Structures
1.
Amino acid sequence: MNAIEVNHLSKSYADFEVLRDISFTIGVGESIAIIGSNGAGKSTLLKCLTRITEPSQGSINIFGDPILKFRTGALRRMRSSIGVVFQKHNLVPRLSVLTNVIHGDIGRLHNVSKFPLAGIRNWGQISASNRTRKKAMEALEMVSLSHLALQRADTLSGGQSQRVAIARALMQEPNMILADEPVASLDPVAANEVMSLFYDLCKNKNITLIFTSHNVEHALEYGNKVLAIKNGRLSLFKDSNSIEIKTLQAEYD
Amino acid sequence: MTDGLIDIDKKSELNNLPRRYKKISITRYFIYLALIVMVIWSFQGSQFSFEGLLDSTQYFKRFLGEAFPSIGILGENEHSITWKDTFRYTRELIETFQMAFTGTLLGIIFGFILALLSSKGLLGNSRPMRLVQETVKALILLFRTVPDLVWAIIFVMLVGLGAFAGTLTIMVDTIGFCGRFFAEEMEDVDKSPADALESCGATKLDATFAAVVPAAMPGLITTSLFAFEKAIRGSVILGLVGAGGIGMSLNALFNWMAYDRAMVIIGMIFALIFVVEQVSQYLRRKVTQNEEKRI
Ligand SMILES: Nc1ncnc2c1ncn2[C@@H]1O[C@H](COP(=O)(O)OP(=O)(O)O)[C@@H](O)[C@H]1O
Ligand SMILES: [Mg+2]
């Protein structure tokens, strides 16, 4: 079974076609870098994979499931097993780091419990179960931030925030993580740290990682394969060992 | 031409020079004209006149004359206020405060719930949900637009004279106020944390309470404090239609033309409002400062 199978995917806004007839397959545990110039459609593609944006045409199978046929409940269950990390970390600013990490467990708790609304316990670290809090501290440990657990999220640096966002994604026990320019707002040192942390965590836990990046070196280093989008079309999908930096830079013309 | 760095003569056919003034359209002219007409027309209708203000000075003098010189708290003459009166007015003042506080608290709670239900896209975007949102919005509008004295008259009719009618009035008024501004505050916060939660399997309800409400909290608190200030000011006059509080005594004293006693009550009201506003202002500043520090 593959992690992702996308077939003839298209997405249009009114009369503007953002994605055009895209097909590709990604195996379990692979790490894929998506590159392309601004407005090429990278974010739209990622959003289609969790149906934050509804595709106009085509089919998407995630771990074998035809997710475009899912209704609200099944869709939520599917989403709760996919971690998402954005360029802007998207932490809730006024809440503690620990609470933000625990938020990653809301959807999963809804699914595993037979009580409706079980997940609302995870709105804050105060009400969360001891098990959840321990798990969250463990996740923070993995990104080496457990010492900041009770600090407010809006006091963190960009790199720290992004690591908290990763911890929140890990909290979901995901089998796949989608990251949209996860290090674009970080300085080069922090960017490298976060990328390699990300890569190692995913490899260790056999999590399929799909990230977009404007950094072609990152793409080659942290992606097993590189997928390039140009004007909404898939223009390259190759093993990163068989690609030269120049080829990738050409994708930006 | 070579006398300057920039040769302005070279392209003398230049025809993209920006206009000095914006052209004002005919409709604009008419709007301005209509505004002027409206000002004149309104002044006429409102019977505003400086003569009237000047003529009133003799009544004003009489009022002042009766309001001030005879005040002798605990004095001997028939007008003077006794301890008993002082206690009664104090008790009524406290009742006014209690009405305002209870009414505001209930109003904040129900206003918050209605704000959640009326905020666009907060708890859902389905067709029935949108219908709920529009309906609740209309309800909040109704609460807000009907003046509080009218609500007071209605509630006095429904539950009788006294503080309960006043409390209900303040509650409804606060629901209207908080319902609107809470909704605005929650619609204004950055939605990306909420979207992030939804994209990892949280429901709209989760996203609202775990991400939107915490982010909007400073705004919700300051709005609530404003609502309380407004309620304290509003609660004073509710007594005029019999809806409890110190306004009832004030009304009675004016009817008996006991201006000196009325002055005492006005002084007490002033003190209450002053203290409440100062405390509230202090708290509001604390909340905003606390936010600024973090950013
Ligand atoms: N909601 C939307 N409505 C209309 N156009 C959109 C919307 N979202 C994205 N687009 C357009 O789709 C194109 C691709 O956007 P995006 O996927 O964000 O590109 P990328 O992430 O590669 O920079 C852009 O031209 C953008 O303007
Ligand atoms: Mg993008």
Note: Chain A has a mean pLDDT of 92.
2.
Amino acid sequence: MTTKVIENERTAMSQHITRQPDGPGKRIGKKGEISFLGKLAPGAAKVFRERLPQIQAEAGSWEDGVGTVVDFRATLIDNDTRMLVTIVYDGDFKPYLEDVLSKAGPWLDQVFGGFEGFKGVKDRKSVEELVANTHFECDLFYIANPDVTARDVAKMQRLSKAVGDLLDAAN
Amino acid sequence: MLKPYTPALDMSDIQATVLRPRPSPYVGEYVVLRIDDAAQGREMLRRIIPHVAPADEWWVPSLPGWLGIAFTYQGLKALGLPQASLDSFPVEFRQGMAARAAILHDFGGNAPSNWEYPFGNSDMHVALAVYSDNEQHLGEILARAGQSHHDLAHVSVVYRMRFNELPGGRNPFGFRDGLHNPHVEGSVAEEDGFVPAASNASIKAGEFVMGYPDELGQTALAPIPGELRHNGTFVAFRKFHMDVAAFRKYLRAHASSPEEEELLAAKMVGRWRSGAPLVLAPDHDDPALGGDATRNNDFSYADDMKGLKCPFSAHTRRINPRDALKDDVVNVNLHKFLRRGTNYGSALPEGVLEDDGAERGGVFLLIGAHLQRQFEFVQSQWATDGNFISHGAEQDPLVGNNDGEGVFTIPKIPVRRRLHGLPCFVSVRGGEYCFMPGLRALQWLARLGDNAD
Ligand code: HEM
């Protein structure tokens, strides 16, 4: 049974939570979330650890290519038998899946490659099964600045630098 | 004399509506049928098939025009398609367009509850599109279509809608339309004299017709069986009302001269009324360019990455970004469709700013093998969202579901111009997803149940 929220000065700041219109996950403003939790194939955790420095070092480049990922974590859990991946991103999930797979496929293969039964992003059926079998929606979700996207932040940084340069020049 | 085709696509099996532009000038009619008895439905189909135009015969001058035919999920069910086959269709087709309202942003005045009958209703089974070059010919084809079911009590006409070209090939807002379509690989032989613009790259045929490899190198495996799927495709049918008076009033209120009104209108569309693209003619309309089919599509956004000529938010730039998003995750080739639009109603006389209450607008047939990543993606990500261009919730100024609070950003130096208070210039009157089979698949459908009945 759900209990009722008792209104107070804190609940006045509560964020409006919806769900993704077409696909899994909660949503606040422009931010969506999705997580994956699944069993790893035998030996997969070891391979992941070995490759991790390279995967980590390339994360910035691949994710920058995608341009909508705010936060991405992959964690080995349960004595290396399972992996948890949590992602916060801008906009919708499902409509962009195909584009993300085309753009960041090689990197995603490195991250998700150890999930039991997963045959790699080239095999779209396998991707569908992976998503269907391992995804889940979080119970509690908070996000700062829900209406500002990763792209907006980059734009604001450029703008802020331009304003700074202008003020410096005026000095 | 036209030389014979040597195309990769089986043009004799694909419906003309998929691959061929409509005649100009055109008159035509959309007809919707309901089938209450599968055997009678199939009898109607058997009779109508000889009149369905394949893509290789579309120009044959002896034909008075052509007829296209497509089926909704409910329609395929009514024809007695086995459940396993029905289940193999993609989810959006099985649900129908009305059920996808949340994804398509069909809210408020555009909500399915405000649509015309039979859109969004399970009575919509078979959609016929009849195109012709004059009234007499149209009458002839309609008569043939009528004969296919006049004596079948369980096949009924539930909707008829006439359409016709407006003077000068303009849409009711006054813009030339039907200018751009992606070039389908293998669909037009060079003997036909067609040379696609250099900047208009060929797209793999499997994006638009099932049975051929698509942009991901895949060939469709569903719906089953292959006999039904091969050379077939999907159509997103959308009927729009255009509020021409509201559009003119908005321009008048936000511009200080007739020239500025024209510029503002062009900024919203991305092309001038003549069809001349803003990136090639940034300051003034250029009717010669607009009317030149070899030049009016030969452009890219590479020289306009700041949107100073054509705003990021302009209709054509949003909905067909060409190379404007090349640094983004998006693979634009996965989000194309063929557009076979027609206009309906009369033109609102020049200069009139008050609505005369007349129904006028456009019907769009957005055709492709992947409704989800084509029509639905473009509608949800590019037309009704601003995320992909860092424009927050800003929607397409022309076709967005703006509710009187719409925003339109025009990049400019030294400061951008941002317009507020955009209303809905167009409203959805109805829509549906249809399956448009190849000609052999039509025969296959007509033979369904031959053993059972
Ligand atoms: C009543 C609604 C609409 C109006 C008044 C309208 C108007 C126009 C006009 C004037 C053009 C430029 C000329 C041309 O190529 O046809 C155009 C282009 C286009 N429209 Fe629309 N349109 C409408 C709805 C839609 C919808 C719903 C879609 C798809 C979801 C769409 C997709 C396109 C595409 C792909 C182009 C080609 C862009 C290019 O030239 O690069 N339009 N539209």
Note: Helices of chain A lie at 44-66, 94-112, 124-134, 150-170.
3.
Amino acid sequence: MKAFATLFAVLDATTSTAGKTAALADYFRTAPDADKVWTIALLSGRRPRRAATATELRTWAAEAAGLSPWLFEESHAVVGDLAETIALILPSSADIAGLTGLDAVIRRLIALTGQPAEARRAAILALWASLPPAERFLATKLLTGGFRMGVSQGLMTRALAQATGRAEADLAHALMGDWNPAQTAFGALVSALETGAGSRPYPFALASPLEAAAATLGDPVDWRAEWKWDGIRGQIVARPGAFALWSRGEELITDRFPEFAPLRDHLPEGTVMDGEVLAWDRASGRPLPFAALQRRIGRKTVPKALLREAPAQFLAYDLLEAGGEDLRAQPFAARREALDTLLAGLPPGLPLAASPLVTFYDWDALAVRRQTAREGGTEGLMLKRAASPYLGGRKRGDWWKWKLDPYSIDAVMLYAQAGHGRRAGLFTDFTFAVRDGEALVPVAKAYSGLTDAEFAEITAWVQRHTLERFGPVRRVPPDLVFEIAFEGIQASPRHKSGIALRFPRMLRWRRDKPVAEIDTLEALRGLLAADRGLRAPGPPRDI
Amino acid sequence: MAPDLLTLTPQGLFCPAGGFHIDPWRPVARALVTHGHSDHARPGHAAYLTTPQALPVIRHRLGPITAESLPYGQPLAIGPVTVSFHPAGHVPGSAQVRVEHRGEVWVVSGDYKTEADGLAEPFAPVPCHAFITECTFGLPVFRWRPQPMVIADVAAWWAANARAGKTSLLAAYSFGKAQRLLAALPPLGPILTHGAVEEINQILRAQGYPLPATTRVTPEITAKTHPGALVLAPPSALATPWARRFEPAEEAMASGWMAVRGIRRRRGLGTGFALSDHADWDGLLTAVKATGAPRIRATHGYTVPFARHLCDLGLQADTLQTEFTGDDTPGDGA
Ligand SMILES: [Zn+2]
Ligand SMILES: [Zn+2]
């Protein structure tokens, strides 16, 4: 655990990418193989099943430290991170050796899952007592889940390439899919794997938001446009003996969408497609609201009624492998033609189609088409360079997402809560309300979009103006007005307001706006109706 | 019931029986001042009383003032009240104030730490009936490692930077923390100081506090003229054009707040050394117990949870709101 803790300290202290890569490469050269496998797993978002709930951990830690629960919570509110609070709060003798390796610690944690609470409690207290604070923090991070080390998958792959001498692209591919770190040897993980082996997907290519004017991209002839669908990005992998649907988060979701199973019999062996999974209204030929797809996401087995109400459709963007051959180096235009040819040869009635290209000859005309995106149930446009290869990760220049401007409202802050991580100690998580007659109704929580200086100023204001405290949450007078942007709106019986906003964030602090002029719940209901298509399409950008 | 020996007025903490204030923040006739930090030694009082060790820095910071000094442990009658100063261990010359009237004893801690740092006069607990204690770090997540271990970390960081051909830029409060580091660090290379730090160094050296030789940063001094140097500067000097001359450099800060990762990251500092001139959680509880006081008033820091915890322990504790509390965001000097 010491080597891993040292690595974490360096990564945490270093902002330069080169410095982080060097530290990781060094770790991959020197750490025990078993620890390396777990480090790769953690850095690529895999983690052991949780051996304890957050509530159990807080209770056990407070008891072990001899502290009242309220004092533990006060401390947690200041530190911001549960694992760090626990690491700091437990008594520690200065000279614990911390001899256990990362692999051994994780295996101890895995062995605990499913055991009775008393056994888990005893084992975790013993683990905490055996580690110095820095390692105790990391071990607890493994227990609480949220492990982020500021290292992208790309950076990790580069470091691994430096340490092993293997090509980055090969490694990126080798690390995809559902390998189990508990059963994988380091050598096997990074050794040459046949491209396309098993059900392994390819690293997803990601687009960057287009901030400049579209015309700056140059000649429209060099570009292809398609709609940006709001579903689950996925890859369908059909190879000899294997059929899989992968989400962009590298989750295997084949079983959640049984309607795609027939594709197994129809797709040629050695086919990999990139595309979007959507809940689809076959009658109108447009997607159902995202809420319909959401009902599908959470379920491992799907009841028949739901299959009828929210049937899934795969809209293919790209063909990455055909006849077992990796096409990624070919130009997008060629891959796209191959995709169309492949799909044209399939029998009708399958839940699979190509995502239609949007033909255009000049950027202004395309901009007009983009304004109609919501009518078709999409979020805007995707622009892809016709000559571009399929590159894993977010490589700027070839793929752009040109989204519609978000909705926005003015709302007033009602509650504030301290942030976590880098913003611990600052009030950054706010609840916002709009007017409903004389009352104020909370409609959104948001925690991003302001500068550190603004958060600091608001923090000072919250401290002076707290009306009530509920644990870490403070109620404040409804005085500060913010412009809140969001991507969509849906009906929600769970919320008092009856609506839920998707991806709300603070656009700006409206110091100029009096509370009397904030938006109303009525206006939001109107927007909801418009968004459902009950009114004329093309809702206003601003309400 | 007798009125409280010390009460709060708009000017600050006041002793009605003796007619004097302790660390007042607005101008008063007679101020007893615990130490030279700017939240304790304010300008504008008609008369100052402090320890002889604290006075030079206070004079340096406040300019011409009317001041007297009273050595540690020596009683002084102010009307019917007897006052004396006792070491607080916070910075050189810092004091707790003992106030006695008709057999009742109150002690005002000022800022203090319980660990001896090798430079400041070590903290000495003073038995009393009521103890007004600071609690800047009054939460159980703040527990310091012993000074030698933290200093070893700082030294290792400095040595590694020097090996990598980098300057070590260490941010530390210019009065107290900076000198404590100077006195404790091993001589690994040249030590450069920001003007704000060097001015205090000179004052303390003249008083006889043992500080190693340092070089004030002047325009011609750069990373090239002093390779492998450690630069001690106040936090405000980091990330300024002044600091740029030392590139390539690594930055770090020595402060109790560095114990919390989120605070460290918000300051944009990868490296932080949790070294504080205030008592940690265990230090606060030890100090409170050592006074034997049944009544505790918490000020300056996490007052609400600290007082509540003392109540849980069976003490009579409450909070004393000063102009410098109610603010739980980290400041300097910690
Ligand atoms: Zn101080
Ligand atoms: Zn202070």
Note: The interface with chain A takes residues 139-143, 145-146, 149, 259-263, 265-266, 270-271, 302, 305, 308-309, 312, 326-330 of chain B (CB under 8 Å).
4.
Amino acid sequence: MDNNMKPDDKEKYGSDTGHEWDGIRELKNPPPRWWMISLHASWIFVVVYLFLYPSIPLLHGSTKGLLGWTMIKEYKEALTENDKIKAPFLSKISGMSAREILADAGMRNFAEQSTKTTFGDSCSACHGGGGQGKKGVYPNLTDDEWIYGGDIDTIIETITYGRQPAMPAHKDILDDASVNKLADFVIALSQGSATPEGWNLFKRSNCVACHGNDARGGNFNKNGSGAANLTDKIWRFGGNRDEVLQTIRFGVNQDFPESRKAVMPAWGERLSADQIKMLAVKVYSLGGGQK
Amino acid sequence: MSKPVEEDQNFEEELLNSDLYTEEGHWHVNAGGNTIHASRIPGFFRNLRWYAQSIYFFFFIGPYLQWNGQRSIYFDIPHRQFHLFGITVWPQDIWMLAVLLIMLAISLVAVTAIAGRVFCGYFCFHMVWVDWFTLVEKYLEGTPSKRRKLDAESWGLRKITLRLIKYVIWLSIGLFTAFTITAYFMDTKELLNGYLHLNAPPAAWGSLLINTIGVFVFTGFMREQVCFWLCPYARIQSVMIDRDTVWPTYDAKRGEPRTKYARGPKDSKAGDCINCNLCFNVCPTGVDIRNGMQEGCITCGMCIDACDTVMGKIKRPKGLIRYVSRNELSGKIVPGIYKRPRVIIYTTIILLALSGIVYGLNHIAPLEFTILHDRMPVYTEMSDGSIQNKYTIKILNKTPKDLLVSLNAEGVDGLKVISEQGEAFVLPAGKMIPFHVFLRVNQDVFKTSNLPVKFRVKGLENKEIDISYKSMLIGPKS
Ligand code: SF4
Ligand code: SF4
């Protein structure tokens, strides 16, 4: 059996387990010490961990662990820490007017970044994640058409008190031919080819009360009516003929199912003045604002 | 390369037939069961090791060195800046670190190809610290034989006292090391105050604790085991060396058969080795170099010093153990260092990497400039029918001074630039405040929906600042 082993092999290789295959003996050498140390250190770590942290799953949740650590607690602590970092900025925001924030690049950036979630929660449902709105339905905040005004104070006012414009339905006021002519007129207007005839009809039909003598809308004429600018390329409710006809016939926020719906809720009830201030800064920055 | 193979085989044959291998079918695995207590013998390589180790002096004084009124080396993690002798490296320039690592790695490989594990034997912090720890042992507990006896002794007052003193000294070295390492990442004075007043930040305590314990355990107790089992370098040693690599080698032809030293003229058959085992006794990793090259050898040269001392005493020529390559030992003509392909390749890589670093350090841009094109919406139709794109501009001023710059865009006819910051504005030092820029253009320029534009930042006072960033203008295809 041991024919190719020298007598002093036992001493040299240590004792064996008595197993031997084809002259190959299985030795009983101890594992290296560092290895044993790591093994013991590992299970000691496991036991300590078992007691300190939630680890054993039971019927009604797991063991609690001596440290009382939970994931949600760690999350809340992180939130508190985050609030702590933000606190000095927020108190600075309270003391600043929206105009001052806009003039200070650092604070402006802070306001814009930290109001992201507020915007997402309150505004983006209608106005879209980037304020792009929805064509013909919800106003686009990134363009330069400001129905009520795009200066920072007006934006604050709009967010705080909301907006609910009204345009009368003309289907019972005007005859159908006039409605059709008016539609042709406003479409021509936005293309820069309006006729004097059209202007006359426009004035006679009393559109000027809200849209102004120049048809440039409530904001330009400072009458606060929320009437759209009809001379530019942007259409609040869509610019093809059928849509224009529908808007003229059934108006905005009237009691017809075909009437345009345009209601912006008042956020002053739900958001703090500072939140609205920061939101206004963000909205102002979306498209470059208006002086 | 095209040396006759035959010659090589002869040598192999000779080796295999020599006593060296027939006698020693011995395979010893050092698993750290016994602490290795090596003797210390003065000599050329011992001195060389001291000189080499002295570079760690700079490691210890590093945190106190000033350079032009600033810390010479300072890794400022909270501010994400690395200060190196007046140069500030930002994370954006970290590619240089990658190049540096490549250079160091290849240097290590190159040195290994030429002269073996020079790093291990002379510069490796682990072995250097082991050297100091064992020096402490020598003065405290005496010669290796005394130390071995003490290890075997049962725990009495003497042993406990000796051990306690030793551990306190070891821990102090560890503590000082840990403090020094940590000080590279914090203001040294502040850190020291923090430790003394117990109000240092948690990371500083963690670093102190981990490094102190690390040094204590790895250096004090694991020693050569770290080289054997933990250090990856020794694992790949065999692919880095070749037959031209010089290595501490026992000249078996000359030394065998080992014969006990006797007075009078030497027996003509006897080899030069007198089997005094001194080479084995001085080896810090417990290697008997007479068994040939092996994994445990860190090429410290202690065995060479030992054997040379012995040879000197018995008036035989020195160099029975010496730095020699295998080819040289077998009597071949060894090609000059720079004729070896490995050396040429490695040197080329090192030089390339080095020039990359030099270039990088000399061309650290004063500004980091990035532009994000807004995707929501991709473009906006304005009331006058023009198309507007929104961009978020991020410019980081990496210089220590405020900079007055202008921002412009070019590349499309009739481009109108509207910037929240105005045309000229100040970039505060070391800061990055994002802002928006709007580009407006007539709808009819969009022959394709994607037009290239280039933003350009120019220094108004520092004319050499002129950095461009390519972006695009998107609109409805007309
Ligand atoms: S064999 Fe010689 S060179 Fe290698 S580690 Fe031991 S003493 Fe140093
Ligand atoms: S020190 Fe030199 S002579 Fe002594 S055993 Fe080692 S190789 Fe032989």
Note: Chain A has three domains: 1-51, 94-163+267-285, 176-250.
